[in-house]
Design a protein that fits this description.
Layout (H helix, E strand, L loop, with lengths): L1 H44 L11 H5 L13 H11 L9 E2 L11 E2 L8 E2 L8 E8 L5 E9 L7 E5 L7 E4 L1 E4 L8 E9 L10 E5 L10 E4 L1 H4 L6 E4 L10 H14 L3 E6 L4 H12 L3 E5 L15 H12 L5 E4 L4 E5 L5 H9 L6 E6 L1 E5 L16 H4 L2 E3 L10 E4 L4 E4 L4 E4 L4 E5 L4 E7 L13 E3 L7 H19 L15
Parallel strand pairs: 4-11, 12-13, 12-15, 13-14, 17-23, 18-24
Antiparallel strand pairs: 1-2, 3-4, 4-5, 5-9, 6-7, 6-10, 8-9, 10-11, 15-20, 16-24, 17-20, 19-25, 21-22
Helix pairs in contact: 5-10
Protein name: Glycosyltransferase family 92 protein
Subcellular location: Membrane
Family: Belongs to the glycosyltransferase 92 family.
Amino acid sequence: MPIRRRIQSGKMAGINRINDRRNKSFYFVLMFMLFFLSILFTEIFFVEENASMEFSFFERLRWKKDTNKEIVLPPHVARELAQVITEEDLDIIVNLYYDSQQDEDDELLGSKNADHWQSVRGTKDKFFVFSAYLDDRRVRLVRVIAAARTRNANKVMCKFWFAGGYPPVTVPAFNKLIQENWNLKYSAYFVLCPLSKGLSTLPERVSIISSENAEITNWLVVHNNKKDSTSSQGIAVCVKPMHYSYNKLLNFIEFIELNRIFGAQHFVLYNNTIGHDVACVMRQYMANGMMTVLPWKLDLVSQKEIRTEGLFAALNDCLYRTMYRFRFVLMIDFDEFIVPHKSESLIEMLGFLINKKPAKTGAYSFQNSFFYLQWPKDPKSSSLPLHLVTLERTMRKLKFHPHKQRSKCIVLPERVVEMGNHFVWEFLPGRAMVDIPSSIGFLHHYRICEFGGNDCINTTSVVDRRIYRWKDQLVQAVQTRLRNWDFVCNFSAVSSDININISH
């Protein structure tokens, strides 16, 4: 009996230990689940969302308009808007102004209707808006280009203004973070303003406000490019904000003229600060209808508060500004050229490419290749009358960067929702990026070593004189511009290290 009792007692002790372990495991799992649920609950109900709605969708649908009557969007509009969330031109010629006494070459003075950065008063943090566009590709809304705090951006509302005595209407706004922000304090945003199907007319302007009774401190024209443009044709070029008193005259004219030779028709630029010579040349291009320049004075510290003067706001503004007006849009910088290597022009190359997958294509990606400025100049360039970088620098890095790494795009703007610097973040459903082989064309990128120093010149290189195919056209075009505008712009003031021979 004692032995049997000891055996039974040992069995019971073993069973108790197993039960204790089970209980501990259960409590451990329960505590983990409670901890996880608490985090999830906090994220949903207390932390502002950056990638979609900034606060409760249903709460905001019940905000009121100016007549104090409750405005509730129809369920089908709410559903469509929720899907989106989870996700004059320009031809207004803005005049450049130069005052030799005040040295204000970088100022843009023009029409009161010209888009420019305006503040939203009454918000806890800085909140700015730049432009507004009607976008009815999924659900009818007004899309505003904005800049706001990256995390926990302020809640705002949209106040629509109409012509013909129609009373203003206030609706909830939804902040959609533009995804490239480099984790800085402020980022570019889309502010989405839904338009109810009950509206019998479209708004002419919109103001972004912090509350229904807030002071109106911004007044944005609602651009309706789809209505104002007969058809999207041709090629436009978008360039990020010009800064550091940009005044590289020869590089600037070379950039414009070579892209025009390739087939580009219009250029959209954003002026943070520019110098006198480039300002004068801009006046001439704008007078000829080839260029749109928009003031870009954003009251945020570049690289400390926001990335490169808010370049992602500029890229997406240009996307919507050119939409329905141009079939193709290049998103490049002044030291970059998308060069066709089998075709004679971008028009010919794009005509070939679009026939491959016409219904599915949303954009084309072109691989990057560096033409480092530290490499020796091409011997053939010594006899040229101008120091043109694309003809002097013909050594390039043999290895191409993969797509999405330093690549640049040509987009079909009507098929794109959100533009990034090196690729498209979001397309309309059914559209996609097409990666273009380097044999057809690629990005020529002229710059110094990207990581500083001169180590880059030790990489494997190859001579690429593809641009020489257009050498005579390019030299003549740049010389003609300099010769015709010399009297107006006084190019003798250009720094002596740039040789400008404008003789016939």
